[in-house]
Amino acid sequence: MPRGFSAARERGIPSRRYAAMSYTLKASEPDLAQGLRRVAADQLDRALASLGAEGADPHEAVHDARKRCKKLRGLLRLFRGALPDYDTENAALRDAARHLSDLRDKTAMIECYDRLMDRYGETLNRSAFGPLRAGMTRDRNAATEAGDLSDRMTAMAEALRLVRGRVDGWELTDEGFPAIRKGLLKTYGRARDAMAEAQATRDPELMHEWRKRVKYHWYHMRLLSDAQSEPLAARETAADQLSDLLGEHHDLVELAPRLEAAPLGDTPTRVLRGIAREEMARLEEEVFAIGHSLFARKPKKFGKDVEEAVTTWYAAA
């Protein structure tokens, strides 16, 4: 199959017009390597803009930059079978994001607490839990005001600039669907296997590992969304929802030690511990229900379904 997903463009078939999306491979591009470079450059440029914005909220800047690193790693994973630089660039992006991981984690704890209060607060004396929220806010503020935050943001930006400088040289060793087949199926298979392991044990670390795999699968569906396939669009929506719910589950796991150390007293601690466990159980029921639907197909069958969807669309581009 020549260059992109099809050779239809070379045969003079008119292109269909759809709104452009920056985190999407487009049928209008001459080959997948160009799409890979375009998406990567866009995400890196946006991350660098966030980190360098004057007067920006550091929490928003860090969240945006780290989110774009994850999207970039999802992009690289899709092309891992045809991108010789995969290992080098994936490691570079992973290490860049680590410069600011702790600050984002502190924000996530506050968001987790707020979700619990939004869901259960009407039945609680919320003031009894105030010291926990106040303590988490102080911790985050201290991290924000730490003298090394600017240096760490600069270090992350410098690491991303190095990757950005190499993007224009990225080439693929394969074309068409074969360029993404390995990455697509490997990510899907890992997510499917991780679900089975997580369900068998309900181990928090395995649940979190499943979440990471689901998120990469979601990114792959987003990258292929220009195919305008209803099954792929439904899969993208379900993977997005599943990733969010698993993220909430992980936040509750991380909240537990903070709860035990908070100066709340026995009764508020016991009440909040019970609420957190109830919420985790509710989330587990929901995520496995979604997961069994999302990952019902075996990887090879899933791959055939996706190949048919994207090649049908790109043949008409």
Helix and strand arrangement:
Blueprint: H1 32-52, H2 58-78, H3 86-98, H4 101-120, H5 130-145, H6 149-167, H7 178-201, H8 204-223, H9 230-261, H10 266-294, H11 299-315
Helix pairs in contact: 1-2, 1-6, 2-3, 2-4, 2-8, 3-6, 4-5, 4-9, 7-8, 7-11, 8-9, 9-10
Commentary on this structure:
- The chain is an all-alpha fold and 317 residues long.
- The protein has a single domain, classed as CHAD domain (Alpha solenoid), CATH 1.40.20.
- The chain is 73% helix and 0% strand.
- It has eleven helices and no strands.
- The protein has helices spanning 32-52, 58-78, 86-98, 101-120, 130-145, 149-167, 178-201, 204-223, 230-261, 266-294, 299-315.
- Helix 2 (58-78) packs antiparallel against helix 3 (86-98), helix 4 packs across helix 9 and helix 8 packs antiparallel against helix 9 (230-261).
- It starts with 31 loop residues before the first helix and ends with a helix.
- The relative contact order is 0.14.
- Mean pLDDT is 88; it is low at 1-20.
Features of this protein?
CHAD domain, 11 helices, disordered N terminus, CHAD domain-containing protein, CHAD_dom_sf, CHAD_dom
